[in-house]
Structures are given as C-alpha cells and as structure tokens.
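Hey,

The postdoc asked me to send both predictions to you directly instead of through the lab channel. I've kept everything plain text so nothing gets mangled by the mail client. Protein one:
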Amino acid sequence: MMEFKSTERPSPIAGTWYTSNKQVLASEMDKFLDEAKLSDDEIQGEVIGLVSPHAGHRYSGRTAGYAYRSVKGQERDLVVILSPFHQFFPGELITTAFHAYETPLGIVEVDVDMLSKLAEKLKNKGIPIHQISNDPEHAIEIQLPFLQRALKGNFKLLPLMVRTRDPIILQTIASAVFEAIKEKSFLLVASTDLSHFFPLDIAEEMDAEMLRVIKDMDPEGVLFAEQDGTAAACGASSVAAVLWMALKAGARKTYILNYSTSADATGDSTSVVGYGSAAIVR
C-alpha cells in the first residue's frame, strides 16, 4: 500500500538548475516556447508523446522548448513522465513519496490513486515501485515548468524513475502504464539527454544515430544502441518504455524537432552533452 506525505516535494534544484524567481522563470519558459518555430503543418497528427532533455535550462532549455511547443495551449488530464534515476538505488522502478511536486510556478499534483493502482498491478507481476523521499533527482522536475506554461488548465502527474535496462521488464511496465491511463487524456514524456562528454564531432555522430532509432520508433533499437555504444542516452530505458506505450496507443510517427549540444551554451566543443527533442503522434 502506497503512502504519500501530506507536504509537497520541495525543489532541490530551483535556484541552481533553473531560476527560483517565479516571474523570471515564467518569462524564460515563454521565451523558449515562443522561439521554438514550428509551422502549423510541420507536425501532422495528435501529439501523445514527447522526448525532452533534462539539463539545466541554460543548456537544454531551447531544445526542450521545441518539444513543449508542439503541445502548447492543449489540455491534458494526466502527464506521465519517465526519467532515469541518476543516483544509486536498489530497485528498478522508483516514484515519489510526496503527493505533489513544487516548482516556483506552483504545485503539480501527483495522481496518487492511479499510481497506487499501478503499483499494485506491477507488484503482482514482480516489479515493485519503490517510493523515495528527499531525492535529488532533477530529470522529472526539470520538465515541470515547461508543462506548467505550455499546457492549458490543470493536469496531474504520474512520475516514474526507471533504473532497469531489461527490455522484458520495460515492456511489462509500458503495458501496465498504458492499461492504467488509456481512458485518460494523457501526454507521455521521456526525459533524457543524449551522449555525454565526447568531443563535438563524435557526439554529433552518436546523437544522430540515437535520434534515428527514436524517429524509427524502435524501442529495442534505442536500448541496443545504448548497450553496444554506437549511441548514448541516460534515459534510454525511459525512451524505450514511452515508445512501447505510444505504439500501444496507436502512434504512427515520430518527429525529431531540435538538436543541440552544451557547446552551444558554453563554446567548449572538447567535451559536450547532446540534447534532442521529439514529438510522437498518432
């Protein structure tokens, strides 16, 4: 039985990974969204999933803006965010112990009822969801200000942090999540950066390969590229699971919207991190 704290999860990264000033943050988010130029006919279909980077807004905010521009002004009942967990934890699947996340832009409620039902279903399949308090993980939270400014109206959050790279476990998670959310108006978000700390030319080659398999809607290819080193993504498992969910939901195409690296912000091309954004449609 899941138990949730009565307080909101306080942000461990506001003021470092992004500004803690509400007005400045709202303005920065709006600028990222407005500067992401997507023509009305550039994306054909209903966007049901996004791939978005999770570095500090200074580094990857512009690329993330393209993902969220594709759903700007839309309404969703539920946003499912899958991310990696960058610290050690003795479990394959993790979620928050709080009933809500807090950002400088306000509170994002967690769908605790759906999360509890999902946990029960996955427990019966031998995949427990572990709750964690006081986690320093940034990969889910970094997406929230974009969602708060891009989506119209309120939405609830289903946050999942994934540590396993096992395709069977990931497909089981994807199937269980899809069955839980399929009657909702939902948005799937895979939070991931691409290659880490390669010279720019090598990073661009590796990232092009990862974006290719994402565009091909090939979850097994995403996991294999990460495993054999031809490409890299810290959230490869999250991307694969979101692709499996999206395919179950009738997705037919993925659009790669933007690509950048940390060199665009720092000017240092000797050791870069890659960032890509994508929209999955049905």
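Protein two:
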Amino acid sequence: MAMSWSGDYATAMKTAREAGIDIDLRYSVPAEGGALWIDGLYIPTDAPHLENAYTFINFLLRADVAADIAAQVEYANANAASWELLDKESLDNPAIYPDEAIWDRMFVIETADPVQERARTRTLARAKSGL
C-alpha cells in the first residue's frame, strides 16, 4: 500500500499502459474518508502587471485550454465547460473525477495554528519515513 495523490496515480497508470507494463494499481479513498484537494490561482497584491495576470487566468479558464491541461496532467479541473472536451476514460476514472459515493467521504483539512501544524507536519514525516 502507498499514499498517492489522485492525479499521480492516474499518471502512473497512463505511463504504465503506454509502456506496455501490466501492473495492478488501484486508487481508493478509505471508508473513513480522504482529504479534499483544492488548487487555486492567486495574484500577489503587489503584482506589477495585474492586467497580464488577469489575462493569463482568463486564458487558463477557457474550456479548450482547461481540457488540454487536464488531459496532459491527469488531474481534474473544476471547469464544467471543459468536461465535454475530455475523453470518457478520464471522466469515468474516479482517481480523476470521483463519483458521488467518493465525494461523500471527502473532507477539507482545516488550517491549523502554527503549533498544531508543526505537530501535524512531524507526524506525517514520521509516517512517511517509517519511524
């Protein structure tokens, strides 16, 4: 068993398939639930070229561009207009686009104060290192 981000799993499956490697990889979210992933685009308050930043974000939000990015990186996007441009295999892959049963088990990891965050980071580091 290993922990993996959903898109990394999907990429590993795609890479193995393209290389002709038959490997049994499976993605699952535990019955107890899993952390919801959220990506964002941010513009610093002191950005020197604010209009360029808005232009770039608008470009990324175009349905065709969002679909091309999602297909390349094997991660979902929240741009519903792009979904009709994606292949059925990606849309039906629960590691990329979870079904309702998986969504029901997902939760947001709340921001912790610095003391709690330090403990959480150390616990994760110990778990990952096997100590």
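Summary for protein two, as requested: Residues 6-129 form one domain.

Thanks,
C.
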